[in-house]
Amino acid sequence: MQRLITIFLxxxxxxxxxxxxxxxxxxxxxxxxxxxxxxxxxxxxxxSHSIELFGKAQFYQEAGSEPGFRFLTNQAPKSKGLxxxxxxxxxxxxxxxxxxxGRFNYKPSETPFTxxxxxxxxxxxxxxxxxxxxxxxxxxxxGGDEVEAVLSNxxxxxxLGEFRTCMNDIIPYQYAKVRNxxxxxxxxxxxxxxxxxxxxxxxxxxxxxxxxxxHAKVDGxxxxxxxxxxxxxxxxxxxxxxxxxxxxxxxxxDKIIVRYFGKRRPVQENTNVNGRAINRRVxxxxxx
Length: 288
Fold this sequence. Notes:
- The protein is α+β, with helices and mostly antiparallel strands and 288 residues long.
- The protein folds into two domains: 153 residues, Immunoglobulin-like (Sandwich), CATH 2.60.40.2540; 113 residues, CATH 3.30.1330.60.
- Helix content is 31%, strand content 29%.
- It contains seven helices and 14 strands.
- Strands 1-10-9-6-7 form a five-stranded mixed sheet. The chain has a five-stranded antiparallel sheet with strand order 2-3-4-5-8, covered by helices on one side.
- A hairpin with a 3-residue loop joins strand 2 and strand 3.
- The N terminus is likely disordered.
């Protein structure tokens, strides 16, 4: 019985890694353990594949960023090196040929193999076609052995559908870039410009989809021309115009806090045209 098990494991290993040589260190998920798992939120999407003893391959996209690929390894290399990436057909496919995707430099890091949009989408396409991406490099000890880390295509397509759904739904803005936003107004006006509306679309996305964002402070301001009461009213109208636009984008009313300050809080001197233009504003602050 022990001999049969040994023979079975030997044959299985050959099937799983037909291009590996006796000198290779070969890492690949076994057929029964091969999984791709999707984690989704309005702020990030990941599609992950674990390889025993080596690490985790991960396609990812974060809010406001392009998709990418990274290999999180159990042990980081101590020095820089070169990795060659191939796309190999499965053992049973005789109408497809292996091809080289490229050769890339890597640096000492827990994610030495990190690719941006174009290469990450290429790897994704190869897996979707049933191909097997292979990362080949020298071992991170003395460099005496060739190492292969292989991405299994088993159960990939189902998880890919979930990942693409997440990518379509992700917030297309970075929180750090929108958490403090200012929109500006013409003299004596409280009408929103097209540019202002585009900025408010980003605010609305976070208020609706990111549960960690509790509310937005909407503060209206005016320059110093005109009577005190007039500027108070004008700054209120500007803040209310912003509030009405956010409500039209289905932002809950209890997430919007409206305040207005007239001419009392300038950020520039009101002594010239540019200074007054900057003071005619509404400041929005997202609060987590």
